[in-house]
TrEMBL record:
It comes from Heracleum sosnowskyi. Gene3D superfamilies: P-loop containing nucleotide triphosphate hydrolases. Belongs to the sulfotransferase 1 family. InterPro entries: P-loop_NTPase (IPR027417), Sulfotransferase_dom (IPR000863). Its EC number is 2.8.2.-. It holds the Pfam family Sulfotransfer_1. This is Sulfotransferase. Keywords: Transferase.
């Protein structure tokens, strides 16, 4: 089933030639390879080797043209469903820990995506903004190769989080089944169908392994500016990696803070179960785009390592592990 491009909710005013930029986006959409199997309300379009919905692609192109970094910017990078919400929470709490009101109140009254805006989603849209503090912290799902030139040419710091692709797929499948378009009813989407598409590299911001490899290789080349974290390591040794994250961000914990339990306090505030049980995350909702709304509780499903075992067969596990091993061969990185 083909879908027409939705009316734009993005702002082109800061483009050199707004009308020309809009026309160029429509031309890209009209010529891009398309897949209609993942979503009931939107096709996926391939752009420079990765797959996007029209709105994510439009935001990507605008970010590439308009985003101007600040010298102290920290950009949290991730593929969807790899620990983005947790990374946002921890980073925000680390950066704001010297102000107890900023540390406690925002994360208890608004969900983490309202504390750390998405570069390609929130900065260039006509949308209601509940709360974005003036801190040098933004996030993105963009692949490394598609980051704005202003970021690539800068010395701002990037933090990238990745996860076992089997858990990524299961979480993505659950999440996308809960993304609601206000005007379109979403049909049942089978696990097997989603799995086949994921294995073929056709998924939102995928192929997943290409997304990971881009940041992994960049982290080896620019280790001072890119911190690469595995979700499983962060879960296993949270305190160690929170200290490592704070050091990298330029907000290291002093010895006094460590003795006073500040690290543990931040971990507790950002704990998955604590965040999930907050009223705002149980009943609130987040508008990714004007017509695409997600209930906040869908960002806090389980957060477990190895939950894929409850969904994937042995054959599915072997198939995906073999694909990932082949794609990462020679890189020095393992994910499975």
């Amino acid at each position: 089933m083909a879908h027409s491009c939705p009316k734009s909710s993005f702002i082109y005013d800061s483009c050199k030639d707004p009308e020309k930029s809009q026309q160029e986006f429509q031309e890209i959409i009209s010529k891009a390879p398309k897949n209609s199997e993942w979503f009931a309300f939107s096709d996926l379009y391939q752009y420079q080797g990765f797959w996007f919905t029209p709105k994510f692609l439009e935001g990507t192109i605008l970010a590439q043209e308009q985003f101007r970094h600040q010298s102290n910017d920290i950009i949290l990078c991730s593929y969807p469903r790899t620990g983005t919400t947790w990374l946002k929470s921890l980073s925000f709490a680390i950066m704001n820990r010297n102000n107890s009101d900023s540390l406690i109140n925002p994360l208890h009254s608004v969900m983490p995506h309202e504390c750390v805006p998405f570069l390609e989603v929130d900065l260039f849209q006509r949308k209601s903004i509940k709360y974005y503090p003036k801190v040098p912290l933004v996030a993105t799902h963009l692949p490394y190769s598609l980051l704005p030139d202003s970021v690539m040419d800068s010395t701002c710091k990037l933090v990238y989080i990745c996860r076992d692709p089997k858990d990524v797929f299961v979480s993505l499948w659950h999440f996308l089944g809960n993304v609601k378009d206000k005007e379109t009813k979403i049909d049942e989407f089978s696990l097997q169908k989603g799995f086949d598409l994921f294995c073929n590299g056709v998924s939102l911001h995928g192929p997943y392994w290409d997304h990971v490899l881009g940041y992994w290789r960049a982290s080896l080349e620019f280790s001072e500016n890119i911190l690469f974290i595995k979700y499983e390591d962060l879960k296993e040794k949270t305190s160690l990696h929170v200290k490592r994250l704070a050091e990298f961000m330029g907000y290291p914990f002093s010895l006094d803070e460590q003795r006073e339990g500040v690290v543990e306090k931040i971990i507790e505030i950002c704990d998955f179960h604590n965040l999930r049980n907050l009223e705002v995350n149980k009943k609130g909702e987040y508008a990714i785009f004007e017509s695409v709304v997600v209930q906040n509780n869908k960002y806090f499903r389980k957060g477990q390592v190895g939950d894929w075992k409850n969904y994937l067969t042995a054959e599915m596990q072997e198939r995906l592990d073999c694909i990932v091993d082949q794609k990462l061969q020679g890189s020095g990185l393992t994910l499975c």
